[in-house]
Design brief:
five-stranded mixed β-sheet, 2 domains, Hexokinase, domain 1, glycolysis, globular, 21% strand, EC 2.7.1.2, six-stranded mixed β-sheet
């Protein structure tokens, strides 16, 4: 029987897979494009076939865990930002598994936060003092969508991640320019969530509203970084400022004096533009609670596959 467990972190764009031996590190990490597969099992089968070709024993894997960018309530998972839909029990049987744990992806990422060290995170402004040990931590992450979560201490070194869909909470403008953004997006979407702005499609939506033309998110970021497009730089600046406001809201909601983290795939690509942005000022800019927020450190998650670490910890707990 294979000693490996199968781990996956599935977003709206990419599915990240790994094998893990009990108590060991990750092996055969591979990223597959979700659009290339009709069903989640097709992606799993393709990954396992490649791992087998690399010499891994995968025929008898019995335990697996999937972190997925979606609410996980009941047996049926239907992804918000991708077409995959599946039954957890059906997938477990189809893969001949004894254990299949399926959890929200940002709950898995939140579970990894207490274990990140200096190599897996970068401070974004704020105080040099350390976070308060044993206190809740907040998490916000723009990618294909917007993930929001937190993790709270549960005693004896244990932590409990809080799954939720805070990215779909209503967007609240802070400036007159953002009120105009909201007005433009109302016309397009009706309800305007934070995710409508803080995501890949959100970056594109901000640019349409500010510049009046359409560009892909990757092009907006690239042109802002190389200085070739003032409108793209304005788009990125607006994105970072809004992210700061939302992260501050999350910190207040969770009482996240253990720190607030930025995950997801977009912000690491913004490089120096994010560090020079209004993110931190907007994080703290909550009126009478500014001194409270000023004491809370903010970090950018730089570890390549943190949700895999988190979902592995959740699988450990489920199979004890």
């Amino acid at each position: 029987m294979s000693a490996y467990r199968l781990l996956a972190d599935i977003g709206g764009t990419n599915a990240r897979f790994a094998l893990q031996a009990p108590g060991g590190g990750f092996a055969d990490i591979e990223v597959l494009a979700c659009r290339d597969y009709d069903h989640v099992k097709d992606a799993i089968d393709a990954y396992l076939a490649r791992a087998t070709a690399r010499g891994r024993a995968t025929d008898d894997i019995r335990h697996a865990a999937i972190a997925i960018a979606n609410p996980v309530e009941g047996d049926v998972v239907s992804m918000t930002n991708h077409h995959w839909r599946f039954s957890i029990a059906g997938l477990k049987d189809a893969c001949s598994l004894a254990t299949l744990l399926v959890v929200n992806d940002f709950a898995a990422l939140a579970q990894a936060l207490p274990h990140l060290d200096a190599t897996g995170r970068v401070r974004i402004g704020g105080p040099e003092a350390a976070a308060v040990d044993g206190r809740p931590m907040g998490l916000v992450g723009p990618g294909t969508g917007l993930g929001v979560s937190g993790v709270v201490p549960a005693g004896e070194g244990r932590w409990i991640a809080l799954p939720g869909e805070g990215g779909h909470a209503s967007f609240a403008p802070v400036t007159r320019a953002e009120m105009r953004l909201l007005d433009a997006l109302w016309e397009e979407y009706g309800h305007v969530s934070a995710e409508r702005l803080l995501s890949g499609p959100g970056l594109e939506a901000i640019h349409r509203a500010l510049a009046g033309d359409s560009l892909a998110a990757a092009d907006i970021s690239a042109r802002a970084l190389d200085g070739s497009c003032a409108a793209c730089r304005a788009t990125v600046d607006a994105f970072c400022a809004i992210l700061g406001s939302v992260a501050g809201n999350v910190a207040l909601t969770f009482g996240a004096t253990g720190g607030t983290y930025i995950g997801g795939g977009i912000v690491p690509r913004l490089g120096p533009l994010f560090h020079a942005s209004e993110f931190r000022a907007r994080f703290e800019g909550k009126g009478r609670l500014q001194p409270y927020l000023a004491r809370i450190p903010t970090w950018l998650v730089t570890e390549p596959y943190p949700a895999l670490r988190g979902v592995a910890a959740l699988l450990d707990a489920a199979t004890r």
